[in-house]
Amino acid sequence: MEFVDWVVANEKIVRMSCFFGMIVIMASWEYVAPCRALSIPRAIHWANNLGIVFLNSFLLRLVFPAAAVGVVLIAGEENWGLFNQVSVSPVIAIILSIIVMDFVIYLQHIMVHAIPLLWRLHRVHHADLDYDFTTGARFHPIEIFLSMLIKFATIVLLGPPVVAVILFEVILNLMAMFNHGNVRLPIALDRVVRLFVVTPDMHRVHHSVHDDEANSNFGFNLSLWDRLFGTYRDQPRDGHEGMTIGIHKYREPPDVSWLPGMLWLPFRGKISDYAINRRQWSDDE
């Protein structure tokens, strides 16, 4: 368990190294072999999307200084959660915890599409006119706070080992950048890889302007949830190069590609019907 102890002791180093390392990998891959031409200049797109990422990181540290790891330690001290009550192998507890937390993310993703008030927050993620690795971390601060509270609740109920939470957050961040990448795997390789994890081609379907496509492929990491619960869609009807990314109503760059517009987007328009049950996006959505 020396590796586990090292990961826990060096949590910040591990997370930041993986985060910036993945940025270098995906940025290089997208530059060398992009899947689609960008509609917004790369420098502007990256600056604004990464700008909201760093804003969210600052606000999270300000509001939740201990973050998820602190909640795990408290849960352990108070014997909260399943794995603090049931004796199982540490390895089994780590694996099961990561799988359960990934399933919670899948359910949360469906929830923010299904509830109108939450969709207003989540549409900041979907309104991006382009699709690249920075889209994977582009979320409104209020949605980030909501996600953190859901994560805290999951930790309290599950009682996962601290290393499981660290590894899960690292894996989720890496996979979000990977499967939002403006890249394509060879078709034969993609078919194999997506049997296990979400690939860029699989998740790109979810960012289509067509509502039936946008309400599919909710997974961020493991692909089995979409197959298991019937939300899987193989390919976009217009093809990966021909499909339109984003939301019908919001197509002006100042509204969706600049940081002030992203922050204001949830407060625009009227709250209407459930987004996930709609046949078409309305002008209010």
From TrEMBL:
It is found in: Membrane. GO terms for molecular function: iron ion binding; oxidoreductase activity. The chain crosses the membrane at residues 13-32, 53-75, 87-107, 152-178. GO terms for biological process: lipid biosynthetic process. It comes from the Bacteria. Signal peptide: none annotated. Residues 95-231 form the Fatty acid hydroxylase domain. InterPro entries: Fatty_acid_hydroxylase (IPR006694), Sterol_Desaturase_Related (IPR050307). It holds the Pfam family FA_hydroxylase. Keywords: Membrane, Transmembrane, Transmembrane helix. GO terms for cellular component: membrane. This is Fatty acid hydroxylase. It comes from Solemya elarraichensis gill symbiont.
